[in-house]
Design goal:
The chain is α+β, with helices and mostly antiparallel strands. It has a single domain, classed as Chorismate lyase-like (Chorismate lyase, 3-Layer(aba) Sandwich). Helix content is about 25%, strand content about 35%. The protein has 3 helices and 4 strands, in the order E-H-H-E-H-E-E. The protein has a 4-stranded antiparallel sheet. Strand 3 and strand 4 form a beta hairpin.
Length: about 100
């Protein structure tokens, strides 16, 4: 359903890898388990075409559209903590949000 990559400082990567990232998402781990205080997160969504490798990993033909979402969370000092890039099969993805004022 999704293939992703995370890029971060080696010390943070070591700490994150001590947790099961297959069942817990990185953003939740940063705040709840690792004690980071997040101020903002830059999120970007775009359509991309599956290449050979991503197509194989997601069981779609190369050239098929994928939904790419990137996340860059910033702490309260406005320091970017990591870069996350996730490619989703569009037939297996639903986006839902609750926004409160």
């Amino acid at each position: 359903m999704v293939v992703g990559k995370l890029v971060m400082a080696p010390d943070l990567a070591t700490t994150m890898l001590a947790h099961n990232l297959e069942i817990a998402d990185a953003m939740t781990l940063l705040e709840t388990e690792l004690g980071y205080r997040l101020d903002s997160t830059h999120i970007e969504t775009s359509a991309v075409l599956a290449g050979e490798e991503r197509g194989r990993m997601l069981d779609v033909e190369p050239g098929m559209p994928l939904l790419r979402i990137t996340f860059v969370p910033h702490d309260i000092d406005n320091t970017p903590l990591l870069y996350a890039e996730m490619d989703f099969r569009p037939d297996k993805f639903t986006y839902e949000a609750v926004i409160r004022k």
